[in-house]
Design goal:
The complex is a heterodimer. By secondary structure, chain A is α/β, with parallel strands linked by helices. Chain A contains 11 helices and 13 strands. The chains are: A alpha/beta, B mainly alpha. The interface between A and B is large, with 55 and 46 residues.
Amino acid sequence: MNHVIEMNELSKWYGEVIGLNNVTACIRDGITGLLGHNGAGKTTLLSLATGQLRPSRGEITVLGERPWNNPRLLSRTGYCPEADAFWRGLTGRQFVTFLARANGMTRRGALRAADAAIDLVRMGEDQHRRIAEYSRGMRQRIKVAQALARRPELLVLDEPLAGMDPVGRAELIALFKRFAESGTAVIVSSHILHEVEAMTDNILLLDHGQLVAEGEVHEIRDSLEEQSHQVLLRARESRRLATLLAGQDYVAALEVQDGQTLILHTHDPDRLYRELPGILADNNIACSEISSPDDSLEAVFGYLTGRP
Amino acid sequence: MSTEQTVLLPEAGPISPTRAWLAVAAFSVRQTMRKRAILAFAVMAVPALLGVIVRVAGARLSPDHMSAFYWGTTVFVMPTAVVPLIAMLFCTTLILNEAAEGTLVYLFTRRLSRRGVLLAKFAGTLFTLVGLACVAQLLLFLVAATGARPMRVTSGAPELWGALAVMALGAVVLSAIFTMLGMLFARPLRIGVGYLILCEWVFASIPLNVQQFSVNYYLRCILVRIAGTPKTWKGLRDVLGEDAATVSTSLLTLAVVALAALLVSAFFVGCKEFTKAREEQR
Protein backbone atom coordinates (compact mmCIF):
# COMPACT_ATOMS: atom_id res chain seq x y z
CA MET A 1 0.00 0.00 0.00
CA ASN A 2 1.25 3.46 -0.88
CA HIS A 3 1.55 6.24 1.62
CA VAL A 4 -0.70 9.03 0.41
CA ILE A 5 -0.16 11.42 3.30
CA GLU A 6 2.75 11.36 5.68
CA MET A 7 2.88 13.46 8.81
CA ASN A 8 6.00 13.78 10.84
CA GLU A 9 5.75 15.50 14.25
CA LEU A 10 3.15 17.74 12.69
CA SER A 11 1.90 20.56 14.89
CA LYS A 12 -0.27 23.54 14.25
CA TRP A 13 -1.12 26.19 16.78
CA TYR A 14 -3.15 29.35 16.55
CA GLY A 15 -1.57 31.73 18.99
CA GLU A 16 -1.96 29.95 22.29
CA VAL A 17 -4.54 27.49 21.01
CA ILE A 18 -3.22 24.14 19.85
CA GLY A 19 -4.95 22.85 16.73
CA LEU A 20 -2.79 19.81 16.17
CA ASN A 21 -0.09 18.52 18.47
CA ASN A 22 2.90 16.49 17.36
CA VAL A 23 1.09 14.10 15.03
CA THR A 24 3.14 11.43 13.31
CA ALA A 25 1.09 9.18 11.07
CA CYS A 26 0.69 7.78 7.58
CA ILE A 27 -2.45 7.63 5.52
CA ARG A 28 -2.51 4.92 2.89
CA ASP A 29 -4.59 4.07 -0.19
CA GLY A 30 -8.24 3.17 0.27
CA ILE A 31 -10.63 4.95 2.61
CA THR A 32 -9.36 6.40 5.86
CA GLY A 33 -11.76 7.74 8.44
CA LEU A 34 -10.63 10.78 10.36
CA LEU A 35 -12.52 10.65 13.59
CA GLY A 36 -12.83 13.00 16.50
CA HIS A 37 -15.18 15.24 18.43
CA ASN A 38 -15.78 18.80 17.28
CA GLY A 39 -12.58 20.77 17.84
CA ALA A 40 -10.42 17.63 17.87
CA GLY A 41 -8.27 18.94 15.04
CA LYS A 42 -9.80 17.16 12.02
CA THR A 43 -10.34 20.29 9.94
CA THR A 44 -6.92 21.60 10.92
CA LEU A 45 -5.33 18.38 9.69
CA LEU A 46 -7.28 18.46 6.42
CA SER A 47 -6.47 22.17 5.96
CA LEU A 48 -2.79 21.32 6.37
CA ALA A 49 -3.15 18.47 3.88
CA THR A 50 -4.79 20.74 1.31
CA GLY A 51 -2.31 23.58 1.73
CA GLN A 52 -4.69 25.98 3.45
CA LEU A 53 -2.51 26.10 6.54
CA ARG A 54 1.23 25.89 7.07
CA PRO A 55 2.59 23.61 9.79
CA SER A 56 3.83 25.45 12.88
CA ARG A 57 6.25 22.58 13.38
CA GLY A 58 6.98 19.26 11.71
CA GLU A 59 6.15 18.27 8.19
CA ILE A 60 3.31 16.98 6.06
CA THR A 61 3.66 15.54 2.58
CA VAL A 62 0.79 14.64 0.28
CA LEU A 63 1.51 12.30 -2.64
CA GLY A 64 5.17 12.93 -1.87
CA GLU A 65 5.01 16.74 -2.03
CA ARG A 66 4.47 19.58 0.40
CA PRO A 67 0.97 20.97 -0.09
CA TRP A 68 1.45 24.63 0.97
CA ASN A 69 1.12 26.86 -2.11
CA ASN A 70 1.61 23.89 -4.42
CA PRO A 71 -1.05 24.24 -7.15
CA ARG A 72 0.37 21.38 -9.19
CA LEU A 73 -0.25 19.01 -6.29
CA LEU A 74 -3.57 20.56 -5.32
CA SER A 75 -4.90 20.05 -8.84
CA ARG A 76 -4.44 16.31 -8.26
CA THR A 77 -6.58 16.35 -5.13
CA GLY A 78 -10.29 16.92 -4.71
CA TYR A 79 -11.30 18.80 -1.60
CA CYS A 80 -14.78 19.07 -0.18
CA PRO A 81 -14.56 21.63 2.63
CA GLU A 82 -16.71 21.49 5.73
CA ALA A 83 -18.02 25.04 5.38
CA ASP A 84 -21.43 25.39 3.78
CA ALA A 85 -20.08 28.12 1.51
CA PHE A 86 -21.01 29.02 -2.05
CA TRP A 87 -20.93 32.04 -4.33
CA ARG A 88 -24.30 33.72 -4.48
CA GLY A 89 -26.48 33.37 -7.53
CA LEU A 90 -24.86 30.29 -9.07
CA THR A 91 -26.68 27.17 -10.12
CA GLY A 92 -25.21 23.83 -9.13
CA ARG A 93 -23.95 23.24 -12.65
CA GLN A 94 -22.36 26.68 -12.91
CA PHE A 95 -20.60 26.11 -9.58
CA VAL A 96 -19.11 22.76 -10.56
CA THR A 97 -18.25 23.93 -14.09
CA PHE A 98 -16.54 27.11 -12.90
CA LEU A 99 -14.40 25.20 -10.42
CA ALA A 100 -13.47 22.66 -13.10
CA ARG A 101 -12.42 25.54 -15.37
CA ALA A 102 -10.53 27.16 -12.50
CA ASN A 103 -8.60 23.93 -12.41
CA GLY A 104 -7.36 24.66 -15.91
CA MET A 105 -9.74 22.52 -17.95
CA THR A 106 -11.04 23.63 -21.33
CA ARG A 107 -14.62 24.91 -21.44
CA ARG A 108 -15.80 21.72 -23.13
CA GLY A 109 -13.77 19.49 -20.82
CA ALA A 110 -15.09 21.31 -17.76
CA LEU A 111 -18.69 20.93 -18.90
CA ARG A 112 -18.18 17.21 -19.55
CA ALA A 113 -16.49 16.69 -16.20
CA ALA A 114 -19.17 18.69 -14.38
CA ASP A 115 -21.99 16.72 -16.01
CA ALA A 116 -20.37 13.41 -15.12
CA ALA A 117 -19.66 14.45 -11.52
CA ILE A 118 -23.17 15.84 -11.08
CA ASP A 119 -24.62 12.57 -12.34
CA LEU A 120 -22.45 10.61 -9.92
CA VAL A 121 -23.85 12.52 -6.95
CA ARG A 122 -27.36 12.26 -8.41
CA MET A 123 -27.97 15.96 -8.83
CA GLY A 124 -28.83 15.78 -12.53
CA GLU A 125 -32.42 16.94 -12.07
CA ASP A 126 -31.58 19.90 -9.86
CA GLN A 127 -28.34 21.05 -11.45
CA HIS A 128 -29.94 24.08 -13.11
CA ARG A 129 -31.49 25.40 -9.90
CA ARG A 130 -29.72 28.02 -7.84
CA ILE A 131 -27.69 26.60 -4.97
CA ALA A 132 -29.48 29.00 -2.61
CA GLU A 133 -32.63 26.97 -3.23
CA TYR A 134 -30.97 23.65 -2.39
CA SER A 135 -31.51 21.67 0.80
CA ARG A 136 -28.48 21.07 2.99
CA GLY A 137 -28.14 17.55 1.62
CA MET A 138 -28.16 18.83 -1.97
CA ARG A 139 -25.53 21.42 -1.14
CA GLN A 140 -23.36 18.66 0.31
CA ARG A 141 -23.78 16.63 -2.87
CA ILE A 142 -22.82 19.54 -5.11
CA LYS A 143 -19.74 20.22 -2.97
CA VAL A 144 -18.75 16.60 -3.38
CA ALA A 145 -19.36 16.91 -7.14
CA GLN A 146 -16.88 19.79 -7.47
CA ALA A 147 -14.29 17.69 -5.65
CA LEU A 148 -14.87 14.74 -7.98
CA ALA A 149 -14.98 16.71 -11.24
CA ARG A 150 -11.22 17.04 -11.49
CA ARG A 151 -10.65 13.24 -11.41
CA PRO A 152 -8.58 13.40 -8.25
CA GLU A 153 -5.95 10.94 -7.13
CA LEU A 154 -6.79 11.91 -3.57
CA LEU A 155 -10.21 12.88 -2.24
CA VAL A 156 -10.23 14.91 0.95
CA LEU A 157 -13.74 15.14 2.38
CA ASP A 158 -14.41 17.19 5.48
CA GLU A 159 -17.71 16.10 7.06
CA PRO A 160 -19.25 15.34 3.65
CA LEU A 161 -22.29 13.61 5.13
CA ALA A 162 -23.27 16.37 7.55
CA GLY A 163 -26.93 17.30 7.18
CA MET A 164 -27.76 14.51 4.75
CA ASP A 165 -30.74 12.20 4.94
CA PRO A 166 -30.11 8.44 5.42
CA VAL A 167 -30.65 7.61 1.74
CA GLY A 168 -28.26 10.34 0.67
CA ARG A 169 -25.67 9.14 3.17
CA ALA A 170 -25.90 5.60 1.91
CA GLU A 171 -25.54 6.75 -1.70
CA LEU A 172 -22.50 8.91 -1.00
CA ILE A 173 -20.88 6.23 1.11
CA ALA A 174 -21.34 3.78 -1.78
CA LEU A 175 -19.84 6.37 -4.15
CA PHE A 176 -16.79 6.94 -1.93
CA LYS A 177 -16.28 3.19 -1.80
CA ARG A 178 -16.43 2.99 -5.59
CA PHE A 179 -13.79 5.69 -5.88
CA ALA A 180 -11.60 3.94 -3.33
CA GLU A 181 -11.96 0.65 -5.20
CA SER A 182 -10.99 2.40 -8.42
CA GLY A 183 -7.70 3.54 -6.95
CA THR A 184 -8.50 6.96 -5.49
CA ALA A 185 -7.32 7.47 -1.93
CA VAL A 186 -10.19 8.84 0.16
CA ILE A 187 -9.94 10.63 3.49
CA VAL A 188 -13.25 11.29 5.21
CA SER A 189 -13.61 13.20 8.42
CA SER A 190 -16.59 12.80 10.69
CA HIS A 191 -17.56 12.94 14.31
CA ILE A 192 -20.34 10.41 13.72
CA LEU A 193 -18.99 6.97 14.36
CA HIS A 194 -21.38 4.81 12.42
CA GLU A 195 -20.79 6.88 9.29
CA VAL A 196 -17.11 6.11 9.38
CA GLU A 197 -17.78 2.52 10.41
CA ALA A 198 -19.96 2.09 7.31
CA MET A 199 -17.10 3.18 5.08
CA THR A 200 -13.93 1.79 6.53
CA ASP A 201 -12.16 -0.03 9.32
CA ASN A 202 -9.13 2.11 8.86
CA ILE A 203 -9.20 5.13 11.11
CA LEU A 204 -7.19 7.99 12.51
CA LEU A 205 -8.53 9.06 15.87
CA LEU A 206 -7.91 12.61 17.07
CA ASP A 207 -8.71 14.15 20.41
CA HIS A 208 -7.75 17.64 21.57
CA GLY A 209 -5.34 17.95 18.66
CA GLN A 210 -3.52 14.73 19.45
CA LEU A 211 -3.45 11.50 17.54
CA VAL A 212 -4.99 8.99 19.90
CA ALA A 213 -4.97 5.94 17.66
CA GLU A 214 -4.34 4.91 14.08
CA GLY A 215 -5.05 1.73 12.10
CA GLU A 216 -7.74 -0.95 11.94
CA VAL A 217 -10.46 -0.69 14.58
CA HIS A 218 -9.99 -4.27 15.89
CA GLU A 219 -6.22 -3.84 16.06
CA ILE A 220 -6.65 -0.69 18.07
CA ARG A 221 -9.06 -2.46 20.38
CA ASP A 222 -6.66 -5.33 20.89
CA SER A 223 -3.88 -2.94 21.73
CA LEU A 224 -5.86 -1.58 24.67
CA GLU A 225 -4.64 -4.27 27.04
CA GLU A 226 -5.38 -2.41 30.25
CA GLN A 227 -8.99 -1.97 29.17
CA SER A 228 -11.07 -5.09 29.77
CA HIS A 229 -12.93 -6.48 26.75
CA GLN A 230 -16.68 -6.83 26.86
CA VAL A 231 -18.28 -10.01 25.56
CA LEU A 232 -22.01 -10.43 25.24
CA LEU A 233 -23.50 -13.91 25.61
CA ARG A 234 -27.15 -14.77 25.07
CA ALA A 235 -28.29 -17.98 26.72
CA ARG A 236 -31.53 -19.18 28.35
CA GLU A 237 -29.62 -20.19 31.46
CA SER A 238 -27.56 -17.03 31.72
CA ARG A 239 -27.50 -17.04 35.53
CA ARG A 240 -26.12 -20.61 35.63
CA LEU A 241 -23.58 -19.68 33.00
CA ALA A 242 -22.60 -16.63 35.05
CA THR A 243 -22.01 -18.85 38.08
CA LEU A 244 -19.81 -21.19 36.05
CA LEU A 245 -17.76 -18.36 34.58
CA ALA A 246 -17.40 -16.47 37.85
CA GLY A 247 -14.74 -18.89 39.02
CA GLN A 248 -12.48 -18.39 35.99
CA ASP A 249 -9.43 -16.24 36.59
CA TYR A 250 -9.67 -14.52 33.20
CA VAL A 251 -13.12 -13.13 34.02
CA ALA A 252 -12.96 -9.66 35.54
CA ALA A 253 -16.66 -8.90 35.93
CA LEU A 254 -20.07 -10.30 35.10
CA GLU A 255 -23.45 -8.71 34.67
CA VAL A 256 -26.71 -10.50 33.96
CA GLN A 257 -29.27 -8.48 32.05
CA ASP A 258 -32.94 -9.34 31.35
CA GLY A 259 -32.48 -12.98 32.29
CA GLN A 260 -31.00 -14.11 28.98
CA THR A 261 -28.12 -11.74 28.42
CA LEU A 262 -24.79 -11.97 30.13
CA ILE A 263 -22.19 -9.21 29.80
CA LEU A 264 -18.74 -10.45 30.66
CA HIS A 265 -15.55 -8.40 31.11
CA THR A 266 -12.25 -10.10 30.47
CA HIS A 267 -8.59 -9.18 30.16
CA ASP A 268 -7.88 -12.30 28.11
CA PRO A 269 -10.51 -12.60 25.36
CA ASP A 270 -8.47 -15.23 23.47
CA ARG A 271 -8.59 -17.61 26.43
CA LEU A 272 -12.28 -16.94 26.95
CA TYR A 273 -13.08 -17.77 23.32
CA ARG A 274 -10.90 -20.87 23.58
CA GLU A 275 -12.45 -22.24 26.76
CA LEU A 276 -16.05 -21.08 26.45
CA PRO A 277 -17.21 -23.81 23.96
CA GLY A 278 -16.02 -26.50 26.39
CA ILE A 279 -17.83 -24.94 29.34
CA LEU A 280 -21.06 -24.64 27.35
CA ALA A 281 -20.84 -28.24 26.08
CA ASP A 282 -19.90 -29.76 29.46
CA ASN A 283 -22.84 -28.05 31.17
CA ASN A 284 -25.28 -28.47 28.30
CA ILE A 285 -26.03 -24.75 28.01
CA ALA A 286 -27.34 -23.48 24.69
CA CYS A 287 -25.87 -20.16 23.71
CA SER A 288 -27.60 -18.29 20.87
CA GLU A 289 -25.17 -15.39 20.47
CA ILE A 290 -21.61 -14.44 21.31
CA SER A 291 -20.53 -10.96 20.32
CA SER A 292 -18.12 -8.30 21.34
CA PRO A 293 -19.95 -4.99 21.65
CA ASP A 294 -16.80 -3.09 22.44
CA ASP A 295 -15.05 -4.13 19.26
CA SER A 296 -17.13 -1.41 17.66
CA LEU A 297 -15.67 1.94 16.74
CA GLU A 298 -17.94 3.61 19.25
CA ALA A 299 -16.51 1.62 22.13
CA VAL A 300 -12.93 2.14 20.99
CA PHE A 301 -13.61 5.83 20.60
CA GLY A 302 -15.08 6.00 24.08
CA TYR A 303 -12.15 4.17 25.65
CA LEU A 304 -9.56 6.28 23.91
CA THR A 305 -11.09 9.67 24.45
CA GLY A 306 -12.58 8.95 27.85
CA ARG A 307 -15.90 10.27 26.55
CA PRO A 308 -18.25 7.31 25.99
CA MET B 1 -5.48 6.30 -12.67
CA SER B 2 -7.19 2.98 -13.11
CA THR B 3 -9.48 1.91 -15.92
CA GLU B 4 -12.43 1.80 -13.53
CA GLN B 5 -12.14 5.49 -12.78
CA THR B 6 -12.21 6.25 -16.50
CA VAL B 7 -15.72 4.86 -16.38
CA LEU B 8 -16.65 6.96 -13.34
CA LEU B 9 -15.39 10.23 -14.84
CA PRO B 10 -14.30 11.38 -18.31
CA GLU B 11 -10.72 12.31 -19.13
CA ALA B 12 -9.86 15.73 -17.70
CA GLY B 13 -8.04 16.69 -20.91
CA PRO B 14 -5.13 19.12 -20.98
CA ILE B 15 -4.78 21.28 -17.87
CA SER B 16 -3.48 24.83 -18.23
CA PRO B 17 -2.78 27.39 -15.47
CA THR B 18 -3.46 30.18 -17.99
CA ARG B 19 -6.96 28.87 -18.59
CA ALA B 20 -7.44 28.62 -14.83
CA TRP B 21 -6.31 32.25 -14.46
CA LEU B 22 -8.68 33.45 -17.17
CA ALA B 23 -11.58 31.52 -15.65
CA VAL B 24 -11.03 33.13 -12.23
CA ALA B 25 -10.60 36.60 -13.77
CA ALA B 26 -13.81 36.26 -15.81
CA PHE B 27 -15.66 34.97 -12.76
CA SER B 28 -14.44 37.99 -10.77
CA VAL B 29 -15.92 40.37 -13.32
CA ARG B 30 -19.26 38.71 -12.79
CA GLN B 31 -18.98 38.56 -9.01
CA THR B 32 -17.80 42.16 -8.59
CA MET B 33 -21.08 43.57 -9.76
CA ARG B 34 -23.04 41.35 -7.40
CA LYS B 35 -21.47 42.95 -4.36
CA ARG B 36 -22.06 46.56 -3.39
CA ALA B 37 -23.38 47.19 -6.87
CA ILE B 38 -26.04 49.67 -5.73
CA LEU B 39 -23.52 51.69 -3.74
CA ALA B 40 -21.06 51.67 -6.64
CA PHE B 41 -23.71 52.84 -9.10
CA ALA B 42 -24.74 55.59 -6.69
CA VAL B 43 -21.15 56.85 -6.41
CA MET B 44 -20.73 56.57 -10.16
CA ALA B 45 -23.84 58.69 -10.81
CA VAL B 46 -22.79 61.56 -8.48
CA PRO B 47 -20.88 63.66 -11.09
CA ALA B 48 -23.69 63.37 -13.64
CA LEU B 49 -26.26 64.28 -10.97
CA LEU B 50 -24.17 67.32 -10.07
CA GLY B 51 -24.27 68.27 -13.74
CA VAL B 52 -28.05 67.89 -13.86
CA ILE B 53 -28.42 70.05 -10.72
CA VAL B 54 -26.14 72.74 -12.15
CA ARG B 55 -28.12 72.72 -15.41
CA VAL B 56 -31.49 72.95 -13.67
CA ALA B 57 -30.43 75.53 -11.05
CA GLY B 58 -28.41 77.72 -13.41
CA ALA B 59 -30.51 77.59 -16.55
CA ARG B 60 -28.76 80.64 -18.00
CA LEU B 61 -25.21 79.42 -17.48
CA SER B 62 -22.99 80.20 -20.47
CA PRO B 63 -21.07 77.49 -22.36
CA ASP B 64 -17.89 78.80 -20.67
CA HIS B 65 -19.44 78.24 -17.26
CA MET B 66 -20.45 74.72 -18.27
CA SER B 67 -16.87 74.10 -19.44
CA ALA B 68 -15.58 75.32 -16.08
CA PHE B 69 -18.03 73.05 -14.27
CA TYR B 70 -16.99 70.04 -16.36
CA TRP B 71 -13.33 70.89 -15.84
CA GLY B 72 -13.73 71.34 -12.08
CA THR B 73 -15.70 68.12 -11.65
CA THR B 74 -13.27 66.14 -13.83
CA VAL B 75 -10.20 67.46 -12.04
CA PHE B 76 -11.45 67.65 -8.46
CA VAL B 77 -14.43 65.33 -7.95
CA MET B 78 -13.62 62.34 -10.15
CA PRO B 79 -10.05 61.50 -9.04
CA THR B 80 -10.62 62.69 -5.48
CA ALA B 81 -13.90 61.06 -4.60
CA VAL B 82 -15.56 58.92 -7.28
CA VAL B 83 -12.65 56.72 -8.42
CA PRO B 84 -11.14 56.22 -4.91
CA LEU B 85 -14.52 55.39 -3.38
CA ILE B 86 -15.35 52.80 -6.03
CA ALA B 87 -11.86 51.28 -5.75
CA MET B 88 -12.10 51.17 -1.96
CA LEU B 89 -15.53 49.53 -1.98
CA PHE B 90 -14.37 46.62 -4.12
CA CYS B 91 -10.66 46.15 -3.57
CA THR B 92 -10.12 46.33 0.19
CA THR B 93 -12.05 43.09 0.63
CA LEU B 94 -10.97 41.42 -2.58
CA ILE B 95 -9.62 38.33 -0.82
CA LEU B 96 -10.93 38.80 2.71
CA ASN B 97 -14.58 38.66 1.62
CA GLU B 98 -13.99 35.29 -0.02
CA ALA B 99 -12.17 34.10 3.08
CA ALA B 100 -14.97 35.27 5.38
CA GLU B 101 -17.62 33.61 3.23
CA GLY B 102 -15.63 30.39 3.04
CA THR B 103 -15.35 30.33 -0.77
CA LEU B 104 -11.64 31.17 -0.92
CA VAL B 105 -10.76 27.57 -0.14
CA TYR B 106 -12.24 26.49 -3.49
CA LEU B 107 -9.93 28.90 -5.34
CA PHE B 108 -6.87 28.09 -3.26
CA THR B 109 -7.16 24.39 -4.06
CA ARG B 110 -7.07 24.82 -7.85
CA ARG B 111 -4.38 24.69 -10.51
CA LEU B 112 -3.45 28.27 -9.72
CA SER B 113 -0.99 29.68 -7.23
CA ARG B 114 -2.24 32.00 -4.50
CA ARG B 115 -0.58 34.90 -6.29
CA GLY B 116 -2.28 33.81 -9.48
CA VAL B 117 -5.66 33.81 -7.74
CA LEU B 118 -5.03 37.29 -6.32
CA LEU B 119 -3.92 38.71 -9.65
CA ALA B 120 -6.82 37.07 -11.51
CA LYS B 121 -9.30 38.48 -9.03
CA PHE B 122 -7.57 41.86 -9.19
CA ALA B 123 -7.69 41.87 -13.00
CA GLY B 124 -11.36 40.91 -13.07
CA THR B 125 -12.31 43.50 -10.46
CA LEU B 126 -10.19 46.16 -12.13
CA PHE B 127 -11.91 45.52 -15.44
CA THR B 128 -15.23 46.33 -13.77
CA LEU B 129 -13.87 49.36 -11.89
CA VAL B 130 -12.31 50.89 -14.99
CA GLY B 131 -15.67 50.42 -16.67
CA LEU B 132 -17.50 52.13 -13.79
CA ALA B 133 -15.02 55.06 -13.65
CA CYS B 134 -15.23 55.56 -17.41
CA VAL B 135 -19.03 55.39 -17.44
CA ALA B 136 -19.10 58.03 -14.66
CA GLN B 137 -16.81 60.29 -16.71
CA LEU B 138 -18.84 59.68 -19.86
CA LEU B 139 -22.13 60.56 -18.13
CA LEU B 140 -20.59 63.76 -16.81
CA PHE B 141 -19.37 64.65 -20.30
CA LEU B 142 -22.77 63.96 -21.83
CA VAL B 143 -24.56 66.12 -19.27
CA ALA B 144 -22.11 68.97 -19.85
CA ALA B 145 -21.79 68.69 -23.63
CA THR B 146 -25.44 68.22 -24.62
CA GLY B 147 -28.73 70.06 -24.08
CA ALA B 148 -29.20 73.85 -24.11
CA ARG B 149 -25.99 75.93 -23.98
CA PRO B 150 -23.57 72.99 -24.02
CA MET B 151 -19.94 73.48 -23.02
CA ARG B 152 -17.30 74.11 -25.67
CA VAL B 153 -14.77 71.31 -25.90
CA THR B 154 -11.76 73.58 -25.96
CA SER B 155 -8.92 74.47 -23.60
CA GLY B 156 -10.10 74.12 -20.04
CA ALA B 157 -12.37 71.21 -20.85
CA PRO B 158 -10.27 68.05 -21.07
CA GLU B 159 -11.23 66.12 -24.15
CA LEU B 160 -13.14 62.96 -23.40
CA TRP B 161 -10.56 60.33 -24.32
CA GLY B 162 -7.83 61.97 -22.25
CA ALA B 163 -10.13 62.18 -19.24
CA LEU B 164 -11.21 58.54 -19.66
CA ALA B 165 -7.58 57.41 -19.81
CA VAL B 166 -6.73 59.32 -16.63
CA MET B 167 -9.74 57.85 -14.78
CA ALA B 168 -8.74 54.36 -15.90
CA LEU B 169 -5.20 55.01 -14.69
CA GLY B 170 -6.56 56.26 -11.36
CA ALA B 171 -8.66 53.11 -11.02
CA VAL B 172 -5.60 50.90 -11.60
CA VAL B 173 -3.39 52.68 -9.05
CA LEU B 174 -6.04 53.11 -6.36
CA SER B 175 -7.25 49.52 -6.78
CA ALA B 176 -3.69 48.29 -6.27
CA ILE B 177 -3.33 50.42 -3.12
CA PHE B 178 -6.64 49.27 -1.63
CA THR B 179 -5.85 45.64 -2.51
CA MET B 180 -2.58 46.01 -0.62
CA LEU B 181 -4.38 47.47 2.40
CA GLY B 182 -6.73 44.50 2.24
CA MET B 183 -3.78 42.13 2.40
CA LEU B 184 -2.01 43.94 5.23
CA PHE B 185 -4.81 44.64 7.68
CA ALA B 186 -7.49 42.61 9.38
CA ARG B 187 -10.05 45.44 9.09
CA PRO B 188 -9.09 46.91 5.75
CA LEU B 189 -12.27 48.89 5.12
CA ARG B 190 -11.58 51.11 8.16
CA ILE B 191 -7.96 51.54 7.12
CA GLY B 192 -9.15 52.25 3.58
CA VAL B 193 -11.48 55.00 4.80
CA GLY B 194 -8.60 56.39 6.87
CA TYR B 195 -6.30 56.39 3.86
CA LEU B 196 -8.97 58.01 1.72
CA ILE B 197 -9.62 60.83 4.19
CA LEU B 198 -5.99 61.44 5.16
CA CYS B 199 -4.12 61.02 1.90
CA GLU B 200 -6.63 61.57 -0.86
CA TRP B 201 -8.66 64.32 0.80
CA VAL B 202 -6.62 66.11 3.53
CA PHE B 203 -3.09 65.84 2.11
CA ALA B 204 -4.33 66.46 -1.43
CA SER B 205 -6.03 69.68 -0.33
CA ILE B 206 -2.99 71.22 1.35
CA PRO B 207 -0.97 73.23 -1.16
CA LEU B 208 2.33 71.97 0.24
CA ASN B 209 4.59 69.05 -0.57
CA VAL B 210 2.28 66.62 1.23
CA GLN B 211 0.03 66.72 -1.83
CA GLN B 212 2.53 64.38 -3.40
CA PHE B 213 1.44 61.62 -1.00
CA SER B 214 -1.92 61.40 -2.72
CA VAL B 215 -2.67 59.61 -5.96
CA ASN B 216 -5.18 62.22 -7.05
CA TYR B 217 -2.48 64.93 -7.04
CA TYR B 218 -0.71 63.14 -9.91
CA LEU B 219 -3.98 62.47 -11.71
CA ARG B 220 -4.86 66.17 -11.46
CA CYS B 221 -1.40 67.11 -12.69
CA ILE B 222 -1.88 64.97 -15.80
CA LEU B 223 -5.40 66.29 -16.40
CA VAL B 224 -4.40 69.94 -16.01
CA ARG B 225 -1.30 69.56 -18.15
CA ILE B 226 -3.12 67.85 -20.99
CA ALA B 227 -6.15 70.16 -20.90
CA GLY B 228 -4.97 73.46 -19.46
CA THR B 229 -7.24 75.54 -17.19
CA PRO B 230 -10.46 77.33 -18.01
CA LYS B 231 -10.61 81.11 -18.36
CA THR B 232 -12.17 81.49 -14.92
CA TRP B 233 -9.01 80.02 -13.31
CA LYS B 234 -5.67 81.80 -13.27
CA GLY B 235 -3.75 78.71 -14.34
CA LEU B 236 -1.83 75.70 -13.18
CA ARG B 237 -0.16 77.54 -10.32
CA ASP B 238 -3.55 78.41 -8.93
CA VAL B 239 -4.61 74.80 -8.87
CA LEU B 240 -1.61 72.65 -8.05
CA GLY B 241 1.04 74.99 -6.74
CA GLU B 242 4.22 76.36 -8.16
CA ASP B 243 5.94 73.16 -9.26
CA ALA B 244 3.26 70.74 -10.35
CA ALA B 245 4.55 67.37 -11.55
CA THR B 246 4.99 66.83 -15.26
CA VAL B 247 2.99 64.20 -17.12
CA SER B 248 5.95 61.85 -17.36
CA THR B 249 6.83 62.24 -13.66
CA SER B 250 3.21 61.63 -12.73
CA LEU B 251 2.95 58.54 -14.93
CA LEU B 252 6.20 57.14 -13.58
CA THR B 253 5.22 57.77 -9.96
CA LEU B 254 1.81 56.19 -10.40
CA ALA B 255 3.30 53.17 -12.19
CA VAL B 256 5.83 52.63 -9.39
CA VAL B 257 3.15 52.96 -6.70
CA ALA B 258 0.80 50.52 -8.45
CA LEU B 259 3.57 47.99 -9.05
CA ALA B 260 4.86 48.23 -5.48
CA ALA B 261 1.36 47.82 -4.06
CA LEU B 262 0.73 44.76 -6.23
CA LEU B 263 4.07 43.20 -5.30
CA VAL B 264 3.37 43.68 -1.59
CA SER B 265 -0.11 42.17 -2.05
CA ALA B 266 1.29 39.21 -3.98
CA PHE B 267 3.92 38.62 -1.31
CA PHE B 268 1.41 38.62 1.52
CA VAL B 269 -1.18 36.45 -0.20
CA GLY B 270 1.55 33.88 -0.73
CA CYS B 271 2.36 33.55 2.96
CA LYS B 272 -0.86 34.37 4.78
CA GLU B 273 -3.34 31.80 6.10
CA PHE B 274 -6.97 32.56 5.41
CA THR B 275 -8.73 29.36 6.39
CA LYS B 276 -11.76 29.32 8.63
CA ALA B 277 -10.29 26.44 10.67
CA ARG B 278 -8.10 29.04 12.29
CA GLU B 279 -11.07 31.06 13.47
CA GLU B 280 -12.99 27.97 14.57
CA GLN B 281 -10.11 26.77 16.71
CA ARG B 282 -9.84 30.20 18.31
